């Protein structure tokens, strides 16, 4: 990989960085669709977002929601989270994320899901976050300070909150039943930003939690790990700041 540094005068420096792949095995699931699901959530989302929902068959509606709508929602998130906010950069200080008190993990990052109906595959998707469940309408907490860049309905994500923490780091909260913040708000670490729910493509009350770095979905588990953050983020930034101050 190559890292390029450029100052405001246009001076540029390049450095090659060695990297390696982690051999992580992600879960693969086969989910059998039933009529209740197809005639419930899928119809609701299709009616809300499709241009001509009546022209779609039941299985076409499933593909629309799980693929077309999902891609559109993810493109919106990518656009929002690709910005590196220099106003927040200077005070960057991250602690492990812990968005839901006593939350139990019910789905993991990068699960590859195959959806079948009458034993035939009709759609597939990747789950780009971690699902946590607690009690209904449980408080969702902002573990780190930042600026709210999204607090509105976003298709399969339902009521969707996204926070910019600076340096291109964003946290995402999906399927909320309520939002305690609005776009543009500055939140402090420990603030309640919303409550869990079943909005969007969610069957049971839970929180979909995601982390993005400059528009790319990354493993949230790493950003919930104090040692990983120290070894891979804060110690690197501290060393860089020391070098800059020295010069």
Automatic annotation (TrEMBL):
Entries under SUPFAM superfamilies matching the protein: Duplicated hybrid motif
> Does the keyword Secreted belong to this entry?
no
Concerning Gene3D superfamilies, the annotation shows: Glucose Permease (Domain IIA) (2.70.70.10)
Q: Which UniProt keywords apply?
A: Signal
InterPro entries, per the entry: Cell_wall_metabolism_enzyme (IPR050570), Dup_hybrid_motif (IPR011055), M23ase_b-sheet_dom (IPR016047)
Top-rank taxon: Bacteria
* Pfam families the record matches: Peptidase_M23
Please give one Gene Ontology molecular function term for this protein: metalloendopeptidase activity
M23ase beta-sheet core domain boundaries: 127-220
| Record-linked PANTHER family | L-ALA--D-GLU ENDOPEPTIDASE, PEPTIDASE-RELATED
This protein is called what? Answer: M23 family metallopeptidase
Its source organism is: Campylobacter concisus
